[in-house]
Design brief:
It holds the Pfam family HTS. It catalyses: L-homoserine + acetyl-CoA = O-acetyl-L-homoserine + CoA. GO terms for molecular function: homoserine O-acetyltransferase activity; homoserine O-succinyltransferase activity. There is one protein chain. Helices cover 29% and strands 25% of the residues. The longest helix has 17 residues, at 277-293. It has a single domain (3-160, 171-237, 277-310), classed as Rossmann fold (3-Layer(aba) Sandwich), CATH 3.40.50.880. Strands 1, 2, 3, 4, 5, 6, 7, 8, 9, 10, 11 and 12 form a twelve-stranded mixed sheet that branches. It is built from ten helices and twelve strands.
Length: 314
C-alpha cells in the first residue's frame, strides 16, 4: 500500500525519487479501503525536512496511511513559508472534532526554555488532552516526549552538563512489541540539551523503560496500555542531519563538539557513518503494525469506548 499525501507536497517528489511509493489523495478516494488516519504534529522549524523524514518511514509499510499535517496556531513559523503551511497544514481547531488511529508529535528546539515559556505550550497541552481521548496510539519524539512526560506524569526535564550530540549505543531493557525484531544492541542519533532522568521515570508505575543507553540515558518508553510511545532520540534523521547542525553551529561561532560516533575517527571532513536507519524503519513499522493497525478499532468512533479488548499483545 502507501502513504496518502497531497500531490504537490514537496515530500512527494523526494520520496518518488527514492522509489518510495506514495499515493495521492485523488487516487486514494477511488479505492474502497479504510486507511489508517494519522496526524503529524510538526513542531520543528524546518517543517519540510521533518515531514519528509517522517513520511519516508511511515511509507515503509504494507498499510495504507492517510496523513494530516498539523502546526501550532499560536506560533508563527520563521523557517517555513506561509504558503506551504496554508496549502498543506491544519491547526488544532481544524481537527479537534476528528479521531485518529495514530499521532506523532515531533521534537522542537525549545528545550532550554521552561515549558510555560514556550509560546504554544497551552495549545500543545490541548493536543495532549485531545490525543488521550481521540487518538488510539501516540508517538512522542525528543522534546515532544519530554513535554508529554511533563503533561501526563509531572516529570520535569533536567539540563545536561553538555549537549547530547551524536550516535549512541542502546540496549533493550524489556522485550515489547515496539522493539520486535530489534537486535539486543542498536544505535540512534541524539541532539538535545536536556533529559528526563531514569530515576524519575522509574517512580511512575504506568511507564516502562524498553530501551536505554549508558551514555544517552532513557531512549524508549511505553505506557502500560502501550498506547503512548516516548522516543528520546531521532531515528528519523537523514544521514547528514547532524552534519548540517554541526556546521551551522560552527558557522555561528558556537565551537560545537564533533558529534560522537558519527564521522570516521571523528574526522569531520569524512562522510558520516549511517548505523541507525534499519532500527528507525523497524521502530516506525512496529508502531504502525502492533500499536496502531492491529489494535485500533475499525470504527474510530469506538475510541470513546477504549478498554482492555484493544490492548497490545506482548
Amino acid at each position: 500500500m502507501a502513504v496518502i499525501i497531497p500531490k504537490d507536497l514537496p515530500a512527494s517528489k523526494q520520496l518518488d525519487r527514492e522509489n518510495i511509493f506514495v499515493m495521492h489523495e485523488e487516487r486514494a478516494k477511488s479505492q474502497d479501503i479504510r486507511p489508517l488516519e494519522l496526524a503529524i504534529v510538526n513542531l520543528m522549524p524546518t517543517k519540510i525536512v521533518t515531514e519528509t523524514q517522517l513520511l519516508r518511514l511511515i511509507s515503509n509499510t504494507a498499510l495504507q496511511v492517510k496523513v494530516d499535517l498539523i502546526n501550532m496556531k499560536s506560533h508563527t513559523s520563521k523557517n517555513t513559508s506561509h504558503n506551504h503551511l496554508k496549502a498543506f497544514y491544519k491547526n488544532f481547531d481544524d481537527i479537534k472534532y476528528k479521531k485518529y488511529d495514530g499521532m506523532i508529535i515531533t521534537g522542537a528546539p525549545v528545550e532550554k526554555l521552561e515549558f510555560d515559556d514556550v509560546n504554544y505550550w497551552e495549545e500543545l497541552q490541548e493536543i495532549f488532552d485531545f490525543a488521550d481521548k481521540n487518538v488510539f496510539s501516540t508517538m512522542f519524539i525528543c522534546w515532544g516526549a519530554q513535554a508529554a512526560l511533563k503533561h501526563y506524569y509531572g516529570i520535569d526535564k533536567k539540563d545536561l552538563p553538555e549537549k547530547m550530540f551524536g550516535i549512541f549505543e542502546h540496549k533493550i531493557v524489556r522485550r515489547r512489541p515496539i522493539v520486535r525484531g530489534f537486535d539486543d544492541v542498536f544505535y540512534a542519533p541524539h541532539s538535545r540539551h536536556t533529559q528526563c532522568r531514569i530515576k524519575d521515570i522509574k517512580k511512575i508505575d504506568d511507564l516502562e523503560i524498553v530501551a536505554s543507553s549508558k551514555e544517552a540515558g532513557a531512549y524508549l518508553l511505553v505506557s502500560k496500555d502501550q498506547r503512548k510511545i516516548f522516543v528520546f532520540g531521532h531515528s528519523e534523521y537523514d544521514p547528514n542531519t547532524l552534519k548540517k547542525e554541526y556546521e551551522r553551529d560552527k558557522a555561528k561561532g558556537l565551537n560545537p563538539k564533533v558529534p560522537k560516533n558519527y564521522f570516521p575517527n571523528d574526522d569531520d571532513t569524512k562522510k558520516p557513518i549511517v548505523r541507525w536507519k534499519a532500527h528507525g524503519n523497524l521502530l516506525f513499522s512496529n508502531w504502525l503494525n502492533y500499536h496502531v493497525y492491529q489494535t485500533t478499532p475499525f470504527d474510530l468512533e469506538k475510541l470513546n469506548q477504549i478498554d482492555k479488548e484493544f490492548g497490545v499483545n506482548e
